[in-house]
Design goal:
- The complex is a heterodimer of chains A (about 325) and B (about 190).
- Chain A is α/β, with parallel strands linked by helices.
- Chain A folds into two domains: about 140 residues, Rossmann fold; about 150 residues, Rossmann fold, CATH 3.40.50.
- In chain A, the strands form two sheets. In chain A, strands 7-6-5-8-9 form a five-stranded parallel β-sheet. Chain A has a four-stranded parallel β-sheet with strand order 2-1-3-4, with helices on both faces.
- In chain A, strand 1, helix 2 and strand 2 form a beta-alpha-beta unit.
- Chain A is globular.
- The relative contact order of chain A is 0.17.
- The C terminus of chain A is likely disordered.
- Chain B has a single domain, classed as 3-Layer(aba) Sandwich (Rossmann fold).
- Chain B is built from three helices and seven strands; from the N terminus they run H-E-H-E-E-H-E-E-E-E.
- The longest helix of chain B has 18 residues.
- Chain B starts with 7 loop residues before the first helix and ends in a 15-residue tail after the last strand.
- The C terminus of chain B is likely disordered.
- Classes of the chains: A alpha/beta (about 325), B alpha/beta (about 190).
- Chains A and B meet through helix 1 and helix 11 of A and loops of B.
Amino acid sequence: MTWNRKHLLDLQSLSADEIVHLLDTAREFKAVGERSIKKVPALRGKTVVNLFVEPSTRTRISFELAALRLSADVINFSAEASSLKKGETLKDTARNLEALNADIIILRHGASGAPHFLARFLGAHVLNAGDGAHEHPTQGLLDVFTIREKKGRVEGLNVTILGDILYSRVARSNIWALTKLGAKVTLCGPPTLVPKTFESFAPNVRVTWNVEEALRDADVINLLRIQHERQRASMFPSTGEYAALFGLNPARMARVKPDALIMHPGPINRGVEIASSIADGPQSVILEQVTHGLAVRMAALYLVNGGSSLQVAA
Amino acid sequence: MNSPLLDASALRLTLTRMAQEIATSNPEPGALVLVGIQRGGVPVARRLASELSRLLGHSVPCGSLDVTFYRDDLNQRAAPIVHPTEIPFDIQGKTVVLVDDVFFTGRTIRAAMDALHEFGRPSRVQLAVVIDRGHRQLPIRPDVVGREVTTSLQQSVLVRCTDRDEDDGVFVRETSAMPASVAPAAMRT
């Protein structure tokens, strides 16, 4: 298996083999992170730009540390303190960064498709760090990486994604990665946030609004935060009602499989989508997801850096 | 496949002689560790370690080292597949024998020495290879050699060292393409 993609824009266009290759590579980077010297020279002399037009802490820090551990030079660029505030277009900002000989641009943007747009005209490699409600490929990858590490496989597992699906790029990237690797995906949440049309993503995706049923057979439960910042209307009556009807509380947890993994991409809202005792409980792998995110992002940077500049991914 | 340069029994004898040579120069118990370079060096290192354990009467630790991240051609090729690095012992102050199947340009060994030093400061590093095929490009040469062979750049050398003894051996093949590791970057496709 040779990786020949210049960019990592989404998981929808990746093959199962490409996803597995990236996860296998990430496993070796996880081992690097466990050494006393956690740095390797694979991207020595390369310049990586974190272009975060939409705010983010954990993803930016994770990408920054990933690039540093590969020995790249890193520039952080956030929208609040930038020329984008002065009316510069995304295209001009990116072209200016490229004029500084940036080799890899990591883009977080509120508009779906923004990284694909940059990839069309930039010579640099582009990594999508989250675009609107479209995709968050490295999050999807770190989630399947975590499942693979903990369960030994992905194929045949029942994975329930519970929460705000409609506005979630994490849900979409998870659906692509999980179904390509053969998992069965159940989506659950309030009907206003979990439209039935999501079943058309892939044959192994189903929607249910019955939380008890969604949790009962789940091998993995991935909880999503309510994305208040993306919702244009009130999608449910109150946070309290959401917690009561869809939150993972101790009563519901008692009926979950005893070996089910509890996952959350963060930031978690304790007492809303997940009770504190469960977030900190023995089945929670939330902090391991953070560790795995670093390994997956190192793998993504390493692989796209070797992706031929002549073969632009479709 | 054409007839082997070394057949299974010749390879076995070669490995035994290499182990004896390593044992003679490392009599001090507990000071010797072996590290095989991924991928071809790893099975060779395992075989040498078990021979050495028998010869020395104590167990000789054996690890594996992937040098991918330390290669000097990462900017000129697709990202190579990364294999596990497992050195579950301390190399500080030890004699580390790096083990590879074929010694060619020396670039892998340069990368391996960089990679190895991330794990500690050995007192000594030696290099053992089954085949030295010539065409060195760096001032690095092996300490223990199974067999020296003159090869052309159009040939490839395969050392097969498995648990199923009858399939083992060293094979030289003609290839039409020049190996990527010696071809100038501009010639690669």
